[in-house]
TrEMBL record:
Subcellular location as annotated: Cell inner membrane
One of the GO biological process terms: phospholipid biosynthetic process
Name the UniProt record assigns to this protein: Glycerol-3-phosphate acyltransferase
Domain of life: Bacteria
TM spans (from-to): 12-31, 122-143, 149-168, 180-200
Reaction it catalyzes: an acyl phosphate + sn-glycerol 3-phosphate = a 1-acyl-sn-glycero-3-phosphate + phosphate
Enzyme class: transferase
GO cellular component, one term: plasma membrane
A Pfam family that the UniProt record links to this protein: G3P_acyltransf
């Protein structure tokens, strides 16, 4: 058990546990009594918060969805910034980023179920790859405004982020590989498989 006293391991565990906090589920339950896992897409993320709660209270649904996005992003950002401040190396930071997204998508508090990883992924990548993440955000915003399909805008934003990363960096600084970025991308895409199937079937719902 000596490995638990390693500061890197401690941050990996912390990032996973904090990443697993299901803010969308907590807020929906707290303010409306609804379990958003039982309606809509069944996800705990902001899109499903908005989709489920807007039926009864559109104004509250929008506020809770925005709050969910912000806190889902912050739970990755905060741990990374603390790790940076105390001087953990870049490879450890990337591992923390991956564990944060894993925690959100496979929460230890929800029997290892969770969200799609978009907001938490955006948060950690904003710290690690700020310019590329802003490009991705612009893509997400434009596609979302035009097509109003949350999953499609998120997936195209992810593609834009990966593509811009390769354009701007032959390899990610300090680790000489894009592997952590691909790990985060794989987790997010895997969690979106039901959405991808619905997209091909023309059945994916829009967020209006």
């Amino acid at each position: 058990m000596d490995f638990l006293f390693n500061i890197n391991v401690q941050f990996y565990i912390l990032s996973y546990l904090v990443g697993g906090i299901p803010f969308g589920l907590v807020f929906a339950k707290l303010f409306t009594g609804k379990d958003i896992r039982e309606a809509g897409s069944g996800s705990i993320g902001a899109t499903n918060v908005l989709r489920v709660l807007k039926e009864t209270n559109p104004a509250l649904a929008k506020k809770l969805a925005i709050l969910t996005v912000i806190l889902d992003a912050l739970k990755g950002i905060v741990i990374l910034l603390i790790a940076k401040i105390i001087g953990l190396d870049i490879s450890t930071l990337w591992a923390i980023a991956v564990f944060s997204v894993l925690g959100h998508c496979y929460s230890p508090y929800l029997k290892f179920e969770g969200g799609k990883g978009v907001a938490t992924g955006a948060g950690v990548l904003l710290v690690m790859l700020p310019i590329e993440t802003l490009i991705a955000f612009l893509t997400w915003f434009v596609v979302g405004k035009v097509l109003k399909i949350s999953s499609l805008s998120s997936l195209l934003a992810l593609i834009a982020l990966i593509a811009s990363s390769y354009v701007m960096h032959h390899d990610l600084e300090g680790i000489q590989t894009h592997a952590p970025l691909w790990m985060i991308a794989f987790i997010i895409v895997y969690k979106h498989i039901p959405n991808i199937v619905r997209l091909f079937q023309g059945k994916e719902s829009k967020v209006i």
